[in-house]
Every structure is written in structure tokens, then in C-alpha cells.
């Protein structure tokens, strides 16, 4: 078991439990057998690698370089996340998530549009809000048309009907 001890000491997320028959992953809480191949398999897994990379870089990662657009979230239940003001998306506070978002198509398009708005002096409206404004303006005009049509049909029906509603009630 010296090889297991060496493996555990070289990996930051593992610790040997006092009964010395199990190894605990402190990152996930998993208990693993005191067996080198199973520890190596677990350490090569996707979940463990993501957690270890998050630990190494999250402390030293500077989120301030993305700050005009990616800011700490101010919603009470989402304080552990970041918020992108260009795309109106919530991001996990992990360097990999921030890089994935910043290198994505949606962010790049929004950043290009924001820079264009800064040059022209126009107010920046995120893409998801633009569609909403268009549909609201279309809905308003169509609602006015529907309202005017119903008024016309109501006035015509009142003129045509000689029938009163008094015969419905005894």
C-alpha cells in the first residue's frame, strides 16, 4: 500500500480514512476502496478532473478582466454565479464556464453589436430583448386593428338587430 499512499499524497482531493481500508475524495465525498487501479480510474474521470482544475485555477483566476460585461450576480439565490450583461445569461463561477461563454458565438455577436452601439451612440439592446420589443410593437398594432374591427362589427350588429333582449326574461 505504499504506492496507494504515494498516489494519495500526490493528488490534492484524496485522503486516507482512519480505518485505512477506504480512501475519501474530499471534493465529491466519494469513498473509494484502498486499491490503486480504482483510484487511478477515478482520478482519470471527467468529474474529478473538472473539480481539480476548478480548485487550481479558481483561486488565482481574475474575473475582473471580463468585468464590464461579466459581473457578479446580484440576485439573492444566484450570488454564487456571474451574469453577462450582453447576453443576459447566468454563468457558473468557474474559469472554464467563463472562457466557454466568452469564446462562444452568442457572446461574440453581442460584443460586436455592443461595440457598434458605442461607436454610433445608440443604446445597446441585447438580442433577446430586441425580439421581444418587435413582437410587442407588432402585438400593439394588431391589437388596435382587432379592436377597431370588433367596434365596427358591434355597431353594425346593433343597427341590424330590431330584436330586444326583453323576451328572454319572464
Automatic annotation (TrEMBL):
<feature type="compositionally biased region" description="Acidic residues">
    <location>
        <begin position="153"/>
        <end position="170"/>
    </location>
</feature>
<protein>
    <recommendedName>
        <fullName>Surfeit 2</fullName>
    </recommendedName>
</protein>
<feature type="compositionally biased region" description="Basic and acidic residues">
    <location>
        <begin position="133"/>
        <end position="152"/>
    </location>
</feature>
<feature type="region of interest" description="Disordered">
    <location>
        <begin position="132"/>
        <end position="170"/>
    </location>
</feature>
<dbReference type="Pfam" id="PF05477">
    <property type="entry name" value="SURF2"/>
</dbReference>
<dbReference type="InterPro" id="IPR008833">
    <property type="entry name" value="Surf2"/>
</dbReference>
Amino acid at each position: 500500500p505504499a504506492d496507494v499512499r504515494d498516489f494519495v499524497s500526490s493528488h490534492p482531493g484524496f485522503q486516507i480514512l482512519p480505518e485505512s481500508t477506504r480512501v475519501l475524495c474530499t471534493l465529491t465525498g466519494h469513498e473509494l476502496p484502498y486499491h490503486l487501479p480504482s483510484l487511478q480510474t477515478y482520478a482519470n474521470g471527467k468529474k474529478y478532473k473538472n473539480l481539480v482544475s476548478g480548485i487550481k485555477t479558481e483561486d488565482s483566476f481574475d474575473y475582473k478582466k471580463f468585468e464590464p460585461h461579466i459581473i457578479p450576480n446580484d440576485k439573492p439565490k444566484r450570488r454564487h454565479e456571474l451574469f453577462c450583461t450582453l447576453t443576459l445569461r447566468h454563468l457558473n463561477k468557474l474559469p472554464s464556464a467563463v472562457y466557454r461563454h466568452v469564446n462562444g458565438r452568442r457572446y461574440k455577436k453581442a460584443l460586436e453589436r455592443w461595440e457598434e452601439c458605442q461607436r454610433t451612440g445608440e443604446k445597446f439592446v441585447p438580442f433577446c430583448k430586441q425580439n421581444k420589443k418587435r413582437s410587442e410593437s407588432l402585438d400593439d398594432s394588431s391589437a388596435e386593428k382587432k379592436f377597431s374591427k370588433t367596434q365596427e362589427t358591434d355597431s353594425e350588429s346593433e343597427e341590424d338587430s330590431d330584436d330586444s333582449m326583453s323576451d328572454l326574461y319572464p
